[in-house]
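Q: I have 306 residues here and want to know how they pack in 3D. Can you give me a structure?
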Amino acid sequence: MTEKELLIFEMIECGYSLNEMAYMLKLSPRQVHKKIQKLIGEGYFICPIYYDDGSIKYSFEENSLKHTLNLSINDSHKFKALVISDMHVGNSLENLDYINRTYDYARDNDIHVIFNLGDLIDGNFTRGEQTINNIDEQIDKVLKKYPYDKNILNFICFGNHDYSAYKSGRDIGVALSQNRPDLVGLGYGFSLINVLRDQFVLSHPLLTGDFKQIPNKLILEGHHHKPMFKIERNNYLVSVAPLSDLCFGEMNNAGITEMRLSFCSGFIHKGYFKMINIKDKPFIYNEMSIEFFLKHKNVNEKSLIK
């Protein structure tokens, strides 16, 4: 083990964040992240702990759950994030200007968490035409062109187009985790977000029938390429617009969703959602405030996998 790797171990034990370690070691956060990934590859149990201010700390524990995120928030009463989906990098209707505008909006509004609901890449099949049909080139473009901000974290539930690459032997989640500390993969099809004493869900249908129905939750869902809200099977479903020009239905513009949750005794109580057109200058085209009536019983990811 090198001297810097020993220092990283000591700083993890002292509770330093990734950005603090980078500053003290005179490296970039991405360089420190790669050193930590190297240590994990050598067999050391180092588990990241994510915070809603965009920071990452670590513990020496093994984490076998691939679809679950325990998100620590600094304010026990409220939490805010942006929700995006369906970038389809490699499709002729991709538009990476939209993700850059999303980051500008996040910085302007003091938002440090982005939930990405999948289909980062167009994968092995498409609607329309592909400008890049090689999976490795699609993933490389995501790694190079997806904005980086050391104070913004992305939590990603991979979709059916990402899954098509996985089935052909290329796991985009592994590629991201090895290179980008800010792009955190949370499994294919669904992700459980544990926050305070409660839980909500990220979803992107894979059309494979691999998962059971998710009961009585707030569900943020990609895949449909249009914004909508509905109550279905006791779930509160919020579908978000695509972050590309691959739009379906009446709403013909790319968009993002700003989500603000309020908590009572650690449980999700109310939600406020702003749907924002991002195609030109951002503007709000729909808003809704929801009071949730949920059973607040957290589920384990293993109970959802058939």
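Q: Anything worth noting?
A: The chain has two domains: 3-44, 68-303. The longest strand covers residues 267-277.
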